[in-house]
């Protein structure tokens, strides 16, 4: 009942004419009260004089309000700008009244319009105090009326800058949750010990468990838009030891186009926030021009990378997208996603890149002008045990699609590769390096342009450590780690796919594009951060178990091979690897022989031939080390 009444009478904004009428009423009252103050409450008001003075005051007031628009603001959201408008209108009223006094003296007008200047000044001050005061009183009353009866979370805001102030206003306006802001934290020594909006600004060293308990704080919201990755990790590590939930305000670029940032958009901090990956600026005009009216074919379309490439390409004015994958269920889910979003001209085909005849029929039917080849086996331990499948998919599958691109004169062929192809120590990495070599060797064969994109691990992809660690934490641990010093490069799936598209449009053929992966992350530290972000403690709640390197696994990854270096491009995140020159005829011959001999299902024979093609392929912790002698 109370909620219905509140909605009926207070949620709708008061009409501007009503605010104007109320303001006018108080300006008139202030004018009368100014006379009483001026004459020490002993002045007897002359009715005949007021009959002339009050219409003048009313006329001037309405005119001043119309000029400044001070009555147009939403009272319950009164702020500094509204106060400035009230002051401006009050000042105009004072100026106009003074002008009448001076003009009246000059023209010898009736004494009735000769207001004492002291009354005009008192009237000005009363207008400011009363009109602004009433607005804020109504705002306070509205806040009390609409605040939830239930006590909300008690929050500390980390950051006493502009983002911190914005976060403060967001929570203050969120009446449903009734959040209580306890104070601010800031690393700036000049701010510490001072107050912001009446709340204390603390040093991070002040935030102890005793402080949290005494103040009954339940959340800390990190509100800093420009913070270094290392500092963010330090803050999270400190807060993770306390009995509080840690949240973070999203980057401004993710909500700047929305009408307002809401409390619900302030999210739990996750591992992606700790990577310090900046938002990739895309050349949308260039991408649109590249894909406008084109038929684009994507292999491995249902995978982590392939599906994101599809989603991003779907936003351009392509002629048709052909999505190919042999994973029926995943491809069906992707199809339903596009159906739900009402995207058109997207065709999903269940097919296998290893089937030459089937792939040829698809190329013949749809005549793709651009090909993004993301189909691949990528699990290092599995491929170490199954080199036949690794070669069949990663080498022969790539060879099949690349040869068909030449045959059907596709304009561009973009291959998604991996940093594991660099100085490979495992079968999977070696097959991807062989695939790189094959498509590079095709550059002078036909009219198609062949481009390779090479990058490291992507967060959230199937088989990456992040989903594995999340599952292990959910199950109570332990987290299994192969080596305490193991490091990896990471980027998000959307970021990786944006760079693949950018590299695709800038490539002229024959390039291997290497992405700026940032600083390599120590997986042990990653595991610790994930435990802390789950509000758990190591090793009391979740332990970390070192299991030893798996067959073929490296302690660290590389983006460039021996003898390789890079040259920059116009995109700051994309470089071109300068690789060794290849004997195209010899490479194509050896790779063809590898694909044929692989049919014998002799794993050792297959791996031995791979090492002939890729001399830098040195097995690590693997049964195939014997071929490195």
> Radius of gyration, rounded?
35 Å
- Overall shape: it is elongated
Helical proportion? 40-55%
Number of helices: 20
CATH topology of the largest domain: Rossmann fold
Question: How much of the sequence is in beta strands?
Answer: 5-15%
Question: Main sheet, how many strands, which sense, barrel?
Answer: 9 strands, mixed
Structural class: alpha/beta
Q: Average pLDDT, to the nearest integer?
A: 82
Let me know the CATH homologous superfamily of the largest domain: NAD(P)-binding Rossmann-like Domain
What is the number of E strands? Answer: 22
Total individual domains: 3
Intertermini distance: 85 Å
What order do the strands of the largest sheet run in, or round the barrel if closed? 10-9-8-11-12-13-18-22-21
Instruction: Enumerate the spans where pLDDT stays under 50 for 5 or more consecutive residues.
Output: 5-11
CATH architecture of the largest domain: 3-Layer(aba) Sandwich
CATH class of the largest domain: Alpha Beta
Highlighted features:
629 residues; Rossmann fold; seven-stranded mixed beta sheet; 20 helices
Overall description:
The protein has 629 residues and is α/β, with parallel strands linked by helices. It folds into 3 domains: 2-146, no CATH class; 154-269, Rossmann fold, CATH 3.40.50.720; 284-625, NAD(P)-binding Rossmann-like Domain (Rossmann fold, 3-Layer(aba) Sandwich), CATH 3.40.50. The chain is 46% helix and 14% strand. A 9-stranded mixed beta sheet has the order 10-9-8-11-12-13-18-22-21, sandwiched between helices. A 7-stranded mixed beta sheet has the order 3-4-2-1-5-6-7, with helices on both faces. It has a two-stranded parallel sheet with strand order 14-17. α10 (304-313) packs across α17 (493-506), α12 (356-366) runs parallel beside α14 and α16 (465-474) packs across α18 (523-533). The protein starts with a helix and ends in a 16-residue tail after the last helix.
């Amino acid at each position: 009942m109370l909620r219905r009444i509140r909605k009926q009478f207070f949620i709708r904004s008061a009409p501007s004419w009503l605010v104007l009428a109320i303001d006018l009423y108080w300006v008139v009252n202030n004018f009368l009260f100014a006379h009483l103050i001026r004459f020490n409450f002993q002045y007897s008001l002359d009715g005949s004089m007021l009959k002339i003075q009050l219409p003048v005051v009313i006329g001037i007031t309405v005119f001043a309000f119309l000029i400044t628009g001070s009555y147009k603001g939403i009272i319950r959201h009164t702020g500094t700008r509204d106060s400035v408008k009230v002051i401006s209108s009050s000042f105009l009223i004072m100026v106009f009244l003074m002008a009448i006094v001076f003009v009246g003296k000059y023209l010898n007008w009736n004494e009735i319009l000769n207001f004492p200047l002291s009354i005009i000044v008192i009237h000005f001050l009363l207008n400011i105090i009363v009109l602004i005061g009433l607005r804020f009183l109504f705002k306070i009353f509205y806040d009390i009326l609409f605040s939830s009866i239930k006590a909300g979370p008690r929050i500390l805001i980390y950051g006493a800058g502009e983002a911190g102030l914005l976060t403060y206003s967001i929570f203050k306006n969120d009446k449903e949750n009734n959040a209580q802001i306890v104070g601010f934290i800031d690393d700036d020594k000049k701010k510490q010990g001072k107050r912001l909006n009446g709340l204390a600004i603390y040093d991070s060293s002040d935030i102890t468990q005793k402080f949290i308990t005494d103040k009954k704080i339940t959340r800390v919201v990190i509100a800093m838009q420009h913070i270094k990755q290392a500092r963010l990790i330090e803050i999270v590590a400190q807060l993770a030891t306390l009995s509080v939930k840690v949240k973070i305000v999203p980057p401004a670029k993710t909500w700047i186009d929305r009408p307002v940032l809401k409390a619900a958009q302030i999210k739990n901090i996750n591992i992606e926030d700790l990577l310090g990956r900046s938002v990739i600026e895309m050349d949308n005009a260039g991408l649109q021009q590249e894909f406008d009216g084109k038929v684009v074919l994507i292999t491995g379309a249902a995978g982590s990378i392939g599906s994101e490439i599809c989603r991003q390409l779907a936003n351009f004015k392509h002629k048709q997208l052909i999505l190919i994958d042999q994973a029926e269920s995943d491809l069906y889910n992707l199809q339903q996603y596009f159906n739900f979003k009402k995207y058109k001209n997207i065709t999903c085909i269940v097919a296998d890149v290893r089937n030459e005849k089937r792939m040829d029929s698809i190329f013949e039917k749809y005549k793709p002008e651009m090909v993004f080849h993301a189909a691949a086996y990528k699990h290092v331990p599995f491929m170490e045990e199954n080199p036949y499948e690794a070669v069949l998919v990663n080498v022969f599958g790539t060879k099949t699609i690349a040869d068909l691109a030449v045959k059907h004169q596709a304009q561009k062929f973009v291959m998604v590769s991996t940093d594991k192809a660099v100085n490979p120590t495992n079968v999977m990495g070696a097959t991807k390096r062989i695939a790189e070599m094959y498509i590079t060797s095709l550059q002078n064969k036909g009219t198609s342009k062949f481009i390779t994109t090479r990058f490291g691990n992507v967060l959230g992809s199937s088989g990456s450590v992040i989903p594995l660690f999340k599952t292990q934490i959910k199950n109570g641990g332990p987290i299994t780690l192969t080596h305490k010093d193991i490091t990896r490069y990471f980027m998000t799936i959307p970021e990786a796919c944006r760079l693949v598209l950018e590299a695709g449009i800038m490539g002229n053929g024959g390039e291997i594009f290497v992405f700026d992966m940032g600083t390599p992350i120590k997986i042990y530290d990653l595991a610790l951060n994930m435990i802390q972000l789950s509000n758990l403690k190591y090793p009391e709640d979740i332990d970390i178990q070192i299991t030893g390197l798996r067959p073929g696994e490296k302690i660290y990854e590389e983006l460039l091979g021996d003898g390789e270096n890079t040259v920059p491009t116009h995109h700051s995140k994309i470089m071109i690897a300068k690789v060794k020159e290849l004997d195209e005829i010899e490479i194509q011959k050896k790779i063809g022989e590898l694909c044929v001999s692989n049919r014998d299902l002799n794993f050792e024979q297959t791996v031995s031939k791979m090492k002939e093609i890729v001399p830098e392929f040195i097995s690590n912790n693997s049964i195939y080390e014997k071929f490195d002698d």
